[in-house]
Amino acid sequence: MPPARILVAQAIAAAAVLLFAVSVDGEGKGMVLSLERASHEGVGVSQLRHRDRVRHGRLLQQQPSGVVDFSVEGTYDPYLVGLYYTRVKLGTPAKEFYVQIDTGSDVLWVSCNPCKGCPSSSGLQIELEFFDPPSSSTASPISCSDQRCALGAQSSDSGCSGQNQCGYTFQYGDGSGTSGYYVYDSMYFDSVVGSSLASNNSAPVVFGCSTSQTGDLTKPDRAVDGIFGFGQQGLSVISQLSSQGITPYSFSHCLRGESGGGGILVLGQIVEPNMVFTPLVPSHNRGTIIDSGTTLAYLAEEAYDPFVTAITETVSGSVRPLLAKGNQCYLTTSSVSEIFPQVTLNFAGGASMILRPQDYLLQQNSIGGAAVWCIGIQKIQGQGITILGDLVLKDKIVVYDIAGQRIGWANYDCSSSVNVSTTTSTGKTEFFNAGQVDNSNSADNAPSKLIPIVVVALLLHIAFFGVTPLL
Predict the structure, then answer these.
(1) Which positions ≥6 away from 374 have C-beta within 8 Å?
(2) Taking the model in full, what pTM does it have?
(3) What's the pLDDT band for 11 if we cut at 50, 70, 90?
(4) What would the pLDDT profile of 350-379 be if each residue is shown by its tens digit?
(5) What residues act catalytically?
(6) Does this UniProt record's set of keywords contain Acetylation (predicted)?
């Protein structure tokens, strides 16, 4: 008997926060960022959930060229507890830094020399670096009277030192924090215009020079050189590059779900025929957060219980339900794709996101030759917020069209290349192909013939502005 399809939707005005990609209409600019995923093995769902909650606590409230291309590395696996990061080159001579990609905050900052509490080694098997402003011939501090110092107040607690340096302090909900001062220096990237690659292009940007870190930021196990904020405030790199006419004010991503991992991160809209879109709805208190920094996925309380109940009732004749550390799990000797239903998330505008069993289930272990699969989607109580993390986002192109106030997605083989739309100075639309191989291997989006089970017949809206941190 084929598994049923479960339809899930919510009556929530949602706020969408994307920890990666960027894409928008805008004068023909685009950027592709390197995305890497680092990991540790042997972690259960409860530990993944704990780390996600720590991550949610760190979400801060916020409000003619071509495609800039960064390489993408890493691997995806929920039990490897990955971290997505990219590499940026700063200063003269250029120095490379590994930075976590974070749409929950605005500012790019890296550890500087000297730095109190900053880790000097990383369990991610990367070599950590420290930015040294005096060693860069193009670096200059931002003074307190500089108007860009006032922009910093939009994203952090700003202050001025006796040396007339514009300082900042970021305090995250998990208790970690960092402080330092703002620096103005060159950022380097490769730009693709048409079929031509121009290396070592640069643009001046303001970024943070961290001189102190506290809390989890000091721990070496998952340490990187800094955080790359993808928010909309004036000091975000996206805002700065967009205002200089270098990149569009938008982003897209495609995360490969197989063990090979990797993915594509683009400033410039990815074009895919099967893309569906839903409107972005401004909201400050309730919403859906699309966050690559979250390993699992989280449903608002009013949708979660019917969701789990429907799945359990659908498969109860073929599996043995059990609870493991508070998580709903199932013991089975069969393939989950043959037993468990597809889940459909319905959004405003008629868009749907179809989740395969492997998009909401995680294999924990085995007992007597039978595999233990647990629901990776967790419950958020009393906040009206849904968070779609890596578990759900993998093997999909996600386009975050800020200019058009919409977000879109399509199932896709993320090991394939993608087409990125750009507009030339003459107004002609052209396409830049990014990725490793031909993109004719796009995943088939046609749904199988399954019996629909309606869990909640309500609409889900996605909003971009005003995401409330989860503590």
Answers:
(1) 45, 324, 327, 328, 329, 330, 361, 362, 363, 364
(2) 0.73
(3) very low
(4) 999 999 999 999 888 888 889 999 999 999
(5) 102, 291
(6) no
